[in-house]
Write a structure and sequence with these properties.
By secondary structure, the chain is an alpha+beta fold. It contains 18 helices and 20 strands. It has helices at 2-17, 40-49, 97-106, 110-113, 119-122, 146-151, 158-161, 221-229, 240-247, 283-291, 295-300, 331-340, 374-384, 398-405, 425-428, 430-435, 445-456, 460-477, and strands at 21-25, 54-56, 62-64, 67-72, 78-83, 126-129, 134-138, 182-184, 192-197, 211-216, 235-237, 256-271, 344-345, 351-352, 360-366, 388-394, 410-416, 480-493, 496-497, 518-519. A 6-stranded mixed β-sheet has the order 11-18-12-17-15-16.
Length: 522
């Protein structure tokens, strides 16, 4: 009897291990090319298929990955990177120093920067291969963000990606030749991607489970809930309301577990600062809109949510977080600012300027999960001070896409920040306008100067003061209106093990991360 039970247990384990861990994504994947990663949804998949030069461990410390080590001179201007010998790409060709140099050069191509501007990596002054496994970095000025920059550096094989930035229609976008422990199986596309453990991996951080599957969840929330309950997904995010129901035992049958974690991100309204395309090119209007922020509505939602009002450009997980208490928005102040900007109340309450133009703005926001949300509350608050908003509901990814085209006045979507605040410089700098990363078109020469200064300041306290000043300038000019700091509302299959979070609150982007996940027999 004991032998029979042992055989059944072994068979059950083998069958379970043949099943891929299924992860739900909230939007389609645009590319699996590390050169073209503009959103966290792509990073989730690429983190399994490609190794970084350096990784984060579970304590948030930088550790070698493709590298076996590095040497930094006393003045911080000369860095020697040492690749691990014996590593290969998934096509069997060796990973060499020239691959790093070629990738670095490609990151400066305009078509790459338009999609993914890794400002920290591409602004390294010089990368030169010294033999097969060594790369020399020479800097005119030492930089404090060096290891964070190397963390964001995921080299690609120069023999396949050597023509520069591939368009988003190129086959390599869904059939990458990676360096990580999992390879993407044939047939992958924007909404369904399967990965399998790669036998040829000899790197430092292998995976524990045999396969993963990433699928875009249905937009119909009821159907998505059904799929979660029937274990079609082992891991996914849900809206705060269903997460609340799961915690209360009103959603699921006991096979699901609710978990949440603060994210190094913020929910925000992005304002079109281009005066040729939007009235919000006038900073006075942006400041007026900021005073109409419905903070009472956002604060009231905290009874059910774990989110907190955002007051700093750098979130609480960042060493550049500004802990100063900001004054709450005042609707009466919004009216004063609109008057000063020359917008007077019209006969129907909507403001008009001296040319007779109505103060009417378009806003793009994803469909809400249930009932009235922050976009509705914002529109109602603005209507009370004489601003008419044409609120257009879209699929979840559409506001971001429209912002990259400069279409509309206000875009509502969240943003995940990086390990170092310098990684956000393309969002707010003139350099970012040139590349297309700065979707708002915001310009401030002092902010440009401070970002460059902060990148190279080695004294931690002085560096922090620089980013606090950047925060003050951007909060004053209001290219964005932050709402709340992000929280991930997660649903897990009760059998899923190994879940952990990096310093940004993500389950990926560190080791073991998702490479350490496994399913335990039920």
């Amino acid at each position: 009897m004991t032998t029979w039970r042992a055989c059944l247990l072994l068979l059950s384990t083998l069958l379970l291990q043949a099943q891929p861990i299924s992860i739900a994504l909230d939007k389609p994947v645009m590319s699996l090319n590390p050169l073209l990663l503009s959103r966290e949804v792509e990073v989730q998949v690429v983190d399994l298929a490609f190794d970084r030069l350096v990784a984060l461990d579970g304590q948030g410390q930088f550790v070698p990955q493709l590298l076996e080590g590095w040497e930094i001179s006393k003045d911080g201007r000369d860095i020697l990177l040492k690749l691990r010998p014996g590593l290969t790409w998934q096509d069997g060709s060796p990973i060499e120093a020239e691959d790093l140099v070629a990738t670095w050069r490609m990151l400066s191509l305009p078509q790459v920067r338009k999609i993914n501007d890794l400002v920290g990596v591409r602004t390294l002054d010089s990368l030169v291969a010294e033999g097969t496994h060594r790369v020399r970095i020479r800097l005119k000025t030492a930089r404090a963000s060096l290891l964070s920059d190397l963390y964001n550096f995921q080299p690609v094989p120069r023999r396949h990606y050597g023509q520069g930035a591939e368009t988003l229609k190129h086959p390599l976008n869904y059939a990458p030749i990676g360096s990580g422990p999992y390879r993407v199986l044939p047939g992958a596309h924007a909404t369904d991607i399967q990965l399998q453990a790669w036998d040829g991996y000899h790197g430092s951080h292998p995976g524990r489970w045999g396969a993963f599957r990433f699928r875009v969840q249905p937009q119909d929330k009821a159907e998505y809930g059904r799929q979660l309950r029937t274990r079609e997904y082992h891991f996914g995010e849900v809206d705060w309301f269903r997460h609340y129901l799961l915690r209360r035992g009103a959603f699921g049958d006991g096979s699901l577990v609710a978990q949440s974690t603060p994210l190094s991100s913020f929910n925000t309204f992005w304002f079109n600062c281009n005066p040729a395309r939007s009235l919000l090119g006038d900073v006075r209007l942006r400041r007026a809109l900021a005073e109409a922020l419905p903070w009472e509505f956002l604060k009231g939602q905290r009874r059910l949510r774990a989110e907190r009002l955002a007051t700093s450009l750098w979130p609480p997980q960042s060493w550049a977080f500004d802990q100063a208490v900001a004054p709450l928005p005042r609707a009466e102040r919004a009216g004063v600012l609109l008057d000063e900007a020359g917008w007077k109340a019209g006969p129907d309450g909507i403001r008009v300027d001296s040319r007779g133009r109505r103060l009417r703005l378009s806003m793009f926001s994803a469909w809400g999960y249930s009932g009235r949300d922050h976009a509705d509350a914002f529109c109602e608050a603005l209507r009370k001070v004489g601003v008419e908003i044409d609120l257009r509901r879209t699929p979840v990814d559409e506001p971001y896409i429209l912002s990259t085209r400069g279409e509309g006045d206000i875009w509502d979507y969240a943003w995940n920040t990086g390990l170092d605040p310098d990684s956000e410089s393309p969002l707010f700098s003139s350099d970012g306008i040139a590349s297309g990363s700065n979707v708002t078109g915001y310009r401030n020469p002092e902010v440009d100067r401070l970002f460059v200064q902060g990148r190279h300041e080695l004294d931690p306290e002085k560096r922090r003061s620089i980013y606090l000043r950047i925060n003050e300038d951007i909060q004053r000019d209001r290219p964005v209106l932050q709402l709340t700091y992000g929280v991930a509302y997660l649903v897990l299959d009760r059998r899923l093990r190994g879940i952990g979070f990096n310093p940004l609150g993500q389950t990926y982007g560190f080791v073991p991360g998702r490479r350490g996940w496994w399913l335990e027999g039920s």
